[in-house]
Specification:
Length: about 240
Amino acid sequence: MDCELLYMENEHFSLVDALPYIDTQLGAAEVAQQVKALIEEEMTQFEPRDYLASLPAPELPFLNSSNMQEEFSRVSMRQPLGAIDQKKYEIERPEGEAAEDEESWKRIASTAQMNLEYTRIKSLNLELLEQWGKKAWIAHNMLIRGAEKVLGKEATEIRASREEVNKKRKLDQVSCGNDLRKLMRELEQYQQDNSQVEQAVRGLESDLKRLRDFAIERGVDIADVDPMAIPESEMDTK
């Protein structure tokens, strides 16, 4: 798959352009309201498309596990989250027939051993925390500060790179804006010149028609100087 940006998948994407550094009229409140109204009108007729259809699905082994799928099913069915089952930690002496069952006593013994192991681990963690907690926290803070410096340096470089891109865009757009304004002035001048030429042509055509009519009234043959003029004999025939 080619490294194509998502917006390039839109038809006629090349026709969409923006010059925010020179299109200052877009900052006007009236123009902003008009743009917003046009966008809202377009959205009412807009058919959403799947912009991620061409991209491969991400691999999410954790979310695809059976436990997560069961949890997703519970959430989709709006079922409440079950509380933690503490019964497996309770130790109750078997009574009645269970008191004579060896397996019942084994389960109780296993539960007691599990609780003792949990207690031993808690005690061990407390001892480790007492002995190494301060040093571990200091070392952790040093790592965090080191990571902060590295990330801060990367963020500064990214901001500087972004600023360079924005400066280049601004310079390019300002230069382009000067060319556009020059071309606009030339267009306006050409339109004005064309309008003056058309007005002058209409005046000459009016004078020519008046002279032709005057020649016809006087019976003067001007075919040698004005081939487009209709001779008087043809006028009589018509």
